[in-house]
Design a protein that fits this description.
heterodimer; A: about 200 residues; alpha/beta; Rossmann fold; three-stranded antiparallel beta sheet; 4 helices; about 25% helix; globular; B: about 325 residues; 2 domains; five-stranded parallel beta sheet; four-stranded parallel beta sheet; about 40% helix
Chain lengths: ~200, ~325
């Protein structure tokens, strides 16, 4: 079965723009706030947000970092092969900063759990919020909820949500794959739009 | 690109493929970043217990392994020759099996006998990391040396590496030769003929007995320690005197300046200052001796992490 497009290129841009304005609503000009993207795919959203926020606010620099969570995962030795690390780029302390953690898809919550663990090795932030492009509701395995959501998607286990980026994949889109990896169809999902 | 080691133990560089070495380096890059965080600790190995068995004296390697283990959150037990049951006549396999009975998953071992690590891996049920077995291999030292060259020069392939000194007694030299060759570097050995092993012609390396000529050839000079403890006590038999050795094969600032290019200086430690290198050379801007020590922890974390990943739950 063909994957279903949840966000096309135009809607994608609007959604990223809205997330920026929500951040500005809560954090003002983002002084004292650090944007941290999670490796490997969350950094693509974080980089886009950084560019957009700088443009909207007319600022030269924002506090920004990229965080790899490989060594903090809870599935080491549960997998066939060990996860290999990506790059962490975080050259300031997080003490007393307001941190916004950024990832592309929130699913079980385990990546965010590891992300929080990794984050706290860089200091003691004043607060941590979570921003995601896609929230796959009802599939959480840990009590973790996002503060900012681009799009809610209701999907079941075997289905997959993928995010493509202009920078790395040639176009911006969010897709729901309703067949599993072997190509067998799985029941269609209910989809919903963000609530105000 | 492989993401799993091809081996269950680290007994020697000879068992590793170039892909294994690349994987260890990639993983070490991640750990090197961890070591620069305010909190230098990750939870990856919190369910693993590691025994450090040192049947031969060591400071740097032992501290380096122990720090690597602790920064991975492993539980660590230390065991050394002096004051142990080994001095009461217990065999190696019995000693290790007694330790393993206390639910130990990995063993890091240094032993004076070549092949001790290989022997142990065949007779006990634990992952073995060779931290030096007699004059045979010292794989983590070779990995950290090659990693330090890669960091300083941006590559290892095609780099000309000179290894100077006591090749005969050096497990560091042998592991380095294997490792550098697997990564495509060129290796030359230099030292008195009495400190060259008989099998030198089978190693596929260049040999030069004139240090000045050798230095002119190389990009990197690894100045090995003269192993005074392996030369037969006070009556040193393999060369006339330390003073003569220092004159012929030691690197001082005058000799270094005469090379006329920025040769990278390495030393596996501990340095006999004034013998292999003088203080001015050891502390020179082109010396990466302390970088080697720093990288040692990241490399050992990578090795332990990748080996632990292969332990079934």
């Amino acid at each position: 079965m063909q994957p279903v497009t949840i966000l096309g290129s135009k809607a994608f841009g609007l959604t990223v723009g809205r997330l920026c304005h929500q951040l500005i609503e809560d954090h003002g000009d983002l002084a004292g706030t650090a944007l941290i993207g999670l490796q490997p795919r969350g950094v693509l959203l974080a980089r886009r947000l950084r560019i957009e926020l700088k443009r909207i606010l007319g600022k030269e620099e924002l506090e920004y970092g990229e965080l790899d969570i490989t060594f903090h995962r809870d599935d080491f030795r549960h997998r066939a092969t060990p996860p290999t690390p990506s790059v962490t780029q975080l050259d300031f302390t997080l003490d007393d900063r307001k941190v916004v953690l950024v990832d592309d898809v929130l699913f079980t919550g385990r990546t965010i759990r590891a992300g929080l663990d990794a984050l706290l090795t860089f200091g003691r932030p004043a607060s941590v919020q979570l921003l995601v492009l896609v929230d796959r509701r009802f599939s959480r395995e840990l009590p973790i909820q996002p503060d900012y959501v681009g799009k809610w998607v209701d999907s079941i286990g075997d289905q997959r949500v993928t995010v493509e980026w202009k920078e790395s994949d040639g176009k911006d889109s969010v897709m729901l794959h309703v067949s599993d990896r072997e190509g067998r169809p799985v029941p269609p999902s209910r989809r919903s739009t963000p609530q105000p | 690109m492989s993401d799993q080691l091809s081996t269950e133990h680290l007994l020697g560089i000879q068992d590793l493929t170039p892909e294994d070495i690349a994987l260890i380096f990639r993983t070490a890059d991640g750990f090197k970043e961890v070591l620069n965080r305010p909190i230098k600790k990750v939870p990856s190995l919190r369910d693993i217990t590691i025994a450090n068995l040192f049947f031969e004296s060591s400071t740097r390697t032992r501290v380096s392994f122990e720090l690597a283990e602790k920064r991975l959150s492993a539980d660590v037990v230390n065991f050394s020759f002096s004051g142990s049951s080994v001095s009461k006549g217990e065999t190696l396999v019995d000693t290790v099996n007694n330790i393993l009975a206390m639910k130990v998953d990995m063993v890091v071992m240094r032993h004076p006998d070549p092949g001790a690590a290989v022997f142990l891996s065949r007779h006990v049920d634990a992952r073995i990391v060779n931290a030096g077995d007699g004059t045979h291999e010292h794989p983590t030292q070779a990995l950290l040396d090659a990693y330090s060259i890669r960091e300083k020069l941006g590559k290892v392939k095609g780099v000309k590496v000179l290894i100077v000194g006591d090749i005969l007694h050096s497990r560091v030299a042998l592991s380095n030769i294997f490792c550098l060759q697997k990564l495509g570097a060129e290796v030359m050995l230099c030292g008195p003929i009495t400190l060259m092993p008989h099998h030198v012609s089978s190693l596929g390396v260049k040999v030069e007995h004139d240090l000045d000529k050798a230095l002119a050839w190389c990009d990197v000079a690894n100045m090995l320690r003269i192993q005074l403890e392996r030369q037969g006590g006070d009556g040193i038999t393999n060369f006339p005197s330390l003073r003569e050795y220092a004159m012929l094969y030691g690197l001082d600032l005058d000799r270094y300046r005469r090379i006329g290019k920025d040769v990278v200086i390495m030393h596996p430690g501990p340095i006999n200052r004034g013998v292999e290198v003088t203080s001015q050379v050891a502390d020179h801007a082109n010396s990466i001796i302390l970088d080697q020590v720093e990288n040692g922890v990241a490399i050992r974390m990578a090795v332990l992490y990748l080996l632990a990943a292969r332990i079934p739950r």
